[in-house]
Amino acid sequence: MLLTPVECMTHIHIWMFAFTDPAQSLMLLMVSLDRLFSVIAPLRYVRFGHRYAYALVGFVFVYSFVSAVAAWIYPLAYSGPAFIGALCVNRLAYGPFQTYLNVIRIAYAYTSVVLYAVVLIIFRKKTAKVVAPMNDARRKQ
């Protein structure tokens, strides 16, 4: 049984994949940004409160929803014959949107890794400033 891209997009697992695929990589990036904020400005970070966390998670969900809606552009524009298998696991169900998902996933993952490296460097410098006077005091005793 062959399906058109529009018929594939009506399957719940395809719709959820279009929603959750950008969400997972963007959430990883948001966690990296959160850790960066907590290391750079720890006293201000404590005052951010729940609204800050809700804003980060809300942004991820809104972006993922818009991205999932954008996944419908190619299937709605396609008017050719049915060519996708019944499970809709073919990358052609998304068309160019699949390339977009791959690029976004890779960009967010690499950015997250770079941010974590920055966090580790900053954290190491800040802890060295705190630990150095304590080590000097021990040496004097």
Automatic annotation (TrEMBL):
Keywords from the named record: Membrane, Transmembrane, Transmembrane helix
Compartmental location: Membrane
Entry-linked Gene3D superfamilies: Rhodopsin 7-helix transmembrane proteins (1.20.1070.10)
Residues of the G-protein coupled receptors family 1 profile domain: 1-141
One Gene Ontology cellular component annotation held by this UniProt entry: membrane
Transmembrane stretches, start-end: 12-31, 52-74, 103-123
PANTHER family (UniProt xref): G-PROTEIN COUPLED RECEPTORS FAMILY 1 PROFILE DOMAIN-CONTAINING PROTEIN (PTHR23360:SF19), G-PROTEIN COUPLED RECEPTORS FAMILY 1 PROFILE DOMAIN-CONTAINING PROTEIN-RELATED (PTHR23360)
Name the record gives this protein: G-protein coupled receptors family 1 profile domain-containing protein
